[in-house]
Every structure is written in C-alpha cells, then in structure tokens.
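User: Some background: our group keeps a shared notebook of sequences we're curious about, and every so often someone picks one and asks for a predicted structure to add to the entry. Today it's my turn. The entry only has the sequence so far, pasted here. Could you supply the structure so I can complete it?
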Amino acid sequence: MAEFDYDFFVIGAGSGGVRAARTAAALGARTGIAEERYFGGTCVNVGCVPKKLYTYAAHFQHDFADSRGYGWTLKQKPDFDWATLLQNKDREISRLNGIYKKMLDAAGVTIHAARATVIDRHQLEIDGRRISAEHILIATGGWPWMPDIPGIEHAISSNEFFELDALPPVSVVVGGGYISVELAGILAGLGSAVSVVHRRAQLLGHFDPDVATELTQAMGAYCELKLETEVTAIERQEDGRLEVYFSDGGRMLSDIVLFATGRNPNSSGLGLEQLGVATRDNGAVVVDDCFATTVDGLYAVGDVIDRVALTPVALAEGEWLARHLFSEQKAEPDYAGIPSAVFSQPQVATVGLTETEARAGGREIDVYRTRFRHMKHTLGGREEKTFMKMLVDRGTDRVLGLHMVGEDAAEIIQGMAVAMKAGATKADFDATVGIHPSAAEEFVTMRQAD
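Assistant: Of course. Here's the predicted structure to add to the notebook entry:
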C-alpha cells in the first residue's frame, strides 16, 4: 500500500500549477490538483486573455478612423456595445476553463474543485477531508493590492474591471505599471474619458528610461495624466458617482476608480505560516533554485514566489519542477533573456537589459535609437510614432537589450528574443537582410550609435 495518497499535489490550477501537474502525471506520478476559484488562473480569467480581447476591441476605434485615409467611407458612425464584448469574452473564458479541465483529465490528474490548505509537510485538508502527498506545490498566483485609504471600498481592482456591465463614461485609473496603462488604453479606446493617476513622474518606471518617456508622452495624447499625485480619498455621491480626492488638493467626479497598483503573492490562509514556511514582507514564498520552500516537501512556483511574474515563466517553472522531482533532469531553469510586452496604446515590448542595467558596473555600451512615423499612419493621418532602441556591448559586440514602443511591438520583439538568446551580435543584425517595407527592418538597419 502506498505511503501517500498522491506522489504530487498542486494547490492552484493556474498556468504554473496546471503545467506542473500535467508534466508530473505524464512522468508517472500520482497527481492531484485543487482549485477553489477558476481554472486557468489570473491569466485566463482576469489577466492576459480578457485584457488582450478588450485591447483588440479598443483598437477598432483607431482602425475606423484611419481607414478614411485609405478610401473607406463609413455610412454611419460605428456603435460600440459593451454588453456584446462582455458576453463574448465570458464565453471564450468559459471555453478555456473547460480546456484546462480537459487537459488535466486527459493527463490523469485528479481534480478537486475546492480550497486546499496545508496541515503539515505531507498533509492537506480539502472540504474537511485529509489528503496526503509526498510533494506539495503552492501555485496560487497573486492578488491585487489596494491601499488603505478612506473610501477604498468604492474602488475596483483589475479583477472587477472585467466584470463591469457597462462602459463608464468617466474613469480614474490609479497606477503607473503595465496593468494600469493597459486598462487605461482600453477604456480610452472604447470611449471613456480617462484620468491616469501615478505617484511618480513617468509611467512604466521599471522599464528602459526611453521607453518610459515615449509611452508617457504617447498616453498624454488621449488620457489626462495626473503624475506625481496620489488618490487620498473616495466618496460616493447620492447619484452613485464617485468624488475622488488627490494629494495635490484637487478633486474630480468619476464613474469608477480603478486601482491597478500591483499584485501581491497570494499566500495567506493556506496554512504556510503555521508550518513556518518563510515568506517575504509582501507574502512571497521564499524558495531556493529548485523551488523548494524552507519546509521539506513543500514547493512553490509562479507569481506566488514573486520572481518573474509572467505566464510563460510560471509555465516553465512548473514544468521544470515536475521534471526535477520525477525524472533525471537536474539542470537549473534559465531566466536570462526573458521577453515581455505591455499591450498599451501604443504597444511596448522589450528583451534584455535596460540602458540603466547595461551601464551598471562601468560597462561600455553603444546605444542605437530610431523614432519614426509608421508607414500605416502616413495615409491614416495618425501622429503616433514608433520608437526602437538597441544596446550593444562595445567590447564583445553582443546585443544586450532591445526595446520597442509602437504597433506590433510584441510580435517583433518575440523574434528578436530568439536572436538574443542565440547570442547575436550587432554584426549579425547588420548582416541580416531586412523585410521591406516593414517596421521590423529598422532593427537590422540601425548603423549610427548615439
């Protein structure tokens, strides 16, 4: 008789947890998984997927306007229906939820649609029942953080944004990170009057300085930017609208106040504190290079460890851990050269070092920049600019970082990330024939450093 009910048990059926469970089961491990909320985690339900769908919806306004320069005449003004978008989004997410369950079933993973808590390093409790497992994985992701200010109960987070049943005529979006700029772009594109409130002087402050500058300027063209400002209080009025108070003494009425001020690791209430699992101040579970916590038999991957909060990274971590535990693979995961994108308006994508990081330690670098009007906009009439930047190590000629603000940035940088992963040099880029006419060719035709 087996000593444990399961060889491997996962708490959380998001990207990292599902990948870990499926991989472990495929390697012969008796695997179970528990999910109390929704299959697919943040990405599928209140993150990447609905955000990208809403971004597509918002971009049609630009396409309709730009089409006139190409000879198209719209017989009547386009009419946007929020309810249709919400309904179709919900249907797509429901489909994806089902796919996640089917994948787990097909892999032979036992699903528990309930909350699980850890009792000790080999035992869990689910619906009042004890279950044992040799290895337990915490993959519970993150949860929106909101400040403790008067009236915060009237605000919403990015989670609730995707459940709004109507487009708010006026919106206040608080925060300067990628979630804030993405949702602000969606709201503005769909017709809401948007004010973005951020306590710092620029948006996307953790990105390359030029990228932060470019996006801040671009967003200022269609949003009111209240920079170096904070929301200090919110009051609901008799008509249901919200009076928003700012640290500079100003105030305004809005239909929603959306806080996109970051997400904290979702580690509380799982029983980890009682077991003595080490966590950081923000709740991030402390793990070693093999994703082991400070308690034997317990592991953690994904946003709950707050290492690199990206869906593809959680997938890679989950698969790596399962292979580490149930196969001969012992190599460490590779975090170098991870590309990322912000689906703002305009889009941002980046891979490698920022200029600040590249210059750290006295390294000598060459910086190549280009800023131009996308060919599409020459007839469309839009003044939006595309910005590209390349950082090159002067001693080795290795490309250290690539950054882009503009249309199709994510699609372009994904390919560039492969080149960087392969160790491409500036000479390699120079020797590559460009696709003409395209925006992407600018990365292989930059010849003059700053």
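Suggested note for the entry: The longest helix spans residues 82-107. The chain has three domains: 6-143+264-326, 152-261, 346-444.
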